[in-house]
Write a structure and sequence with these properties.
The chain is 1% helix and 42% strand. The chain has 1 helix and 36 strands. The protein has a 4-stranded antiparallel β-sheet with strand order 5-36-35-34, with no helix packed on it. Strands 6-7-8-9 form a 4-stranded antiparallel β-sheet, with no helix packed on it.
């Protein structure tokens, strides 16, 4: 018998506690006024690394270290941010886009380093910006990709914001592009049910592969294979060099997100299901599939858990995490699919959960704009905090210093 979230957990969302008092010579950046009080009960105001003169206080009191869950900074774009934040290898730079602008921000302060506006050829054009990184070009910075409905793709140097090249795709691109390991080939999907492989700099189409229906999420590239899920309830594996189909796996429903490979490349994890908004009885299934043959290893059926984000697997390939529209986060054994623990949030978990760089902390956002940090091994809550409205994505920094959350026009950096 399925248990409700209320039966499983009675959780209270507690605002994160800010910095403790110390007697240092100056305020530390990130101290939040309502979270820091003097011994006499008066509030010690500290904003952006500078003391506020609006608050009476003894001069010898100073803000202490910022504690996990405290806000570090907030960036406001002109329009809604549309994709997950992207981090440089050392988290010193954060990249976000708002559909027609790309921003490069200082990861520590949120200050804009540069921005690029994409020109629309007419007022009705919808410009969609996509982020893409490569780690295989040691002498060049990572790349940024932008695509619009005029079938034009821009390749932007993320170090400077300058355009490296642009070309017409002759297809309406519907997904985030994926780079080959040598950065010479770009893989994307079109609204015409095709997987496309482009020469990254000339824009020539190297091959196309047509699936049975539209492709709702970005492709996955791993081990020389392109994996996509189609609305015909099928997962396809296609040779990345030739575009020839290697195998197809028939699932119980359409995929909800980009599939995920285990870190050893042997197992493909994918989620299928329906929409709670259109079907209150919609169900979801997480599959583990042999990445080389397409044979099913195991599947887990989640009752009343729909609209799952992409699954997440830890680095030692032992735990798979998935959260759903019923507000429950599941941690399952990566080899068997058996449940290890579950965590109940206050509302639906639509965004993909994210593991911190050490795999010790799992970050979860709810539709009620609460960010949770939980123990990745046990599911025990560590802290929670109210965050930006309608969070769409959460991305931990590679240095374990901050977690970045996108919602609406805002990018919020929170102490990890």
């Amino acid at each position: 018998m399925a248990l409700s979230v209320q039966t499983l957990f009675a959780l209270m969302v507690v605002p994160a506690v800010g910095g403790a008092l110390s007697s240092g010579p100056q305020c530390n950046a990130g101290c939040i006024p309502e979270h820091t009080k003097l011994k006499d009960g008066r509030v010690h105001c500290c904003t952006g690394g500078h003391e506020s003169l609006a608050c009476p206080k003894p001069a010898h009191y100073r803000c202490g270290p910022t504690l996990p869950g405290s806000q570090l900074w907030v960036f406001e774009a002109d329009t809604a941010l549309v994709r997950d934040p992207l981090l440089s290898a050392d988290s010193s730079t954060v990249y976000v886009d708002s559909g027609d602008s790309l921003y490069a921000l200082n990861g520590s302060t949120g200050i804009t380093l540069w921005s690029v506006d994409f020109i629309k050829t007419n007022p009705t054009d919808i410009v969609e910006c996509r982020l893409g990184l490569t780690t295989s070009r040691p002498n060049l910075s990572p790349l940024y990709y932008a695509m619009n409905v005029n079938d034009e793709m821009y390749i932007i140097d993320l170090l400077t914001g300058s355009t490296i090249s642009s070309f017409l795709t002759n297809h309406v691109i519907a997904s985030v592009p994926v780079l080959s390991t040598d950065s010479k080939v770009l893989y994307a999907t079109g609204i015409d049910d095709n997987i496309l492989a482009f020469d990254t700099f000339s824009g020539d189409i190297l091959w196309t592969f047509t699936v049975g229906s539209w492709i709702p999420a970005a492709p996955l590239l791993g081990g020389g294979v392109v994996y996509v899920g189609s609305a015909d309830s099928t997962i396809y594996a296609v040779d990345a060099h030739t575009g020839i189909k290697l195998w197809a796996f028939a699932a119980a429903g359409p995929p909800l997100s980009t599939p995920v490979l285990s870190h050893n490349g042997g197992v493909l994890y994918t989620v299928t299901g329906g929409s709670c908004a259109s079907d209150p009885n919609a169900k979801s299934t997480v599959y583990a599939v042999d990445a080389h043959t397409g044979s099913q290893i195991w599947s887990v059926y989640f009752n009343c858990s729909c609209e799952l984000g992409a699954p997440v697997v830890n680095k030692d390939n032992t735990i798979v995490y998935a959260g759903g529209g019923d507000g429950v986060l599941y941690a399952v054994n990566a080899s068997t699919g058996s449940t290890i623990w579950i965590f109940g949030a206050d509302s639906a978990i639509i965004a993909t959960p994210a593991l911190g760089p050490s795999d010790r902390v799992l970050y979860i956002t709810s539709s009620n704009a609460v960010l949770y940090a939980v123990n990745a091994l046990t599911g025990a809550p560590r802290w929670s905090v109210q965050t930006v409205f309608n969070p769409k994505a959460v991305t931990p920094g590679t240095d374990n210093a901050a977690v970045y959350v996108i919602g609406g026009n805002s990018l919020q950096a929170i102490k990890a």
